[in-house]
Amino acid sequence: MSDSEEEIQERQLKIVLLGDGASGKTSLAIRFAQEAFGKQYKQTIGLDFFLKRITLPGNLNVTLQVWDIGGQTIGGKMLDKYIYGAQGVLLVYDITNSQSFENLEDWLNMVRKANEESDTQPAISLIGNKIDLEHMRTVKMEKHQRFCQENGLISQFVSAKTGDSNFQTSDLIVCTCRILRRIVRYKLHRVFLCFQRLAAEVLGIKLNKAEMEQSQHIVKAELVDYPQDEGPIRQETNQSKICSVQ
């Protein structure tokens, strides 16, 4: 096997989880990397790391380095360094917390700012979490879809409680057909598929509609009742009488 063939067989990707506190980022990361679901909410301070190895078509082994970034870091000086170099981003919000959706614009801008000197931007997937609480939804699906279309994001809905998902396949095709190339069929539970689809897009591997619509290995767990996070802490700046235009 040549050196180029060996390079194709082994890859490592940096995947970053972003979004407000209590949106479910850590639950998704743990569900994906450790096949577990925590019953108690614990705020992520700074960031946590997870590693997971998956296999894509053509026996391509991919190690995903998952960076779970705390929701309070958006005003911090280290956020751009956490994001820099990521090939994929999962933007997570809580469908029952409208403020977590409104703050997505800030998170997305931070991703673009952190990579403004890079030749390419990371692939980004918008994750509407807690779909098991549909009766408590405050973010309309139309707003989710519009945000995806305006920003070229992959659209996904998941539940950290059940592991289930509702993928918007038509919007996915519109957003990613320019990138994805090959077809593959897998049977994976939905939280795993969030990460697997993002990795496939980064590497130019196409997942077909039938595979994305499969629902298998549903994870059941108790729903944790914790107070909604008030949103990310913004970085305070000193007031100035000087007006600057960028």
Helix content: 25-40%
What's the helix count? Answer: 9
- CATH superfamily annotation: P-loop containing nucleotide triphosphate hydrolases
What is the topology, as strand order, of the major beta sheet?
A: 2-3-1-4-5-6
Rg computed from alpha carbons, rounded to a whole number of angstroms: 18 Å
Indicate the structural class: alpha/beta
CATH class: Alpha Beta
Would you list the SSEs in sequence order as H and E?
HEHEEHEHHEHEHEHEH
What is the distance, rounded to the nearest whole angstrom, between the alpha carbons of the first and last residues?
52 Å
Bin the strand percentage.
15-25%
Average pLDDT metric: 72
Biggest sheet statistics: 6 strands, mixed
CATH topology: Rossmann fold
Q: Provide the low-confidence segments as ranges.
A: 36-41, 166-188, 214-246
User: What number of domains?
Assistant: 1
Reported CATH architecture: 3-Layer(aba) Sandwich
Number of strands: 8
Shape: globular
Organism: Cyprinus carpio carpio
Family: Belongs to the small GTPase superfamily. Rab family.
Pfam families: Ras (PF00071)
GO molecular function, one term: GTP binding
Sum up the structure in keywords.
alpha/beta, Rossmann fold, 246 residues, two-stranded parallel ribbon
Explain the overall architecture.
There is one protein chain. The chain is α/β, with parallel strands linked by helices and 246 residues long. The chain has one domain: Rossmann fold. The chain has nine helices and eight strands. The chain has a six-stranded mixed beta sheet with strand order 2-3-1-4-5-6, with helices on both faces. It has a two-stranded parallel sheet with strand order 7-8. The longest helix is centred in the last third of the chain and has 13 residues, at 190-202. Pfam families: Ras. It comes from Cyprinus carpio carpio. GO terms for molecular function: GTP binding; GTPase activity.
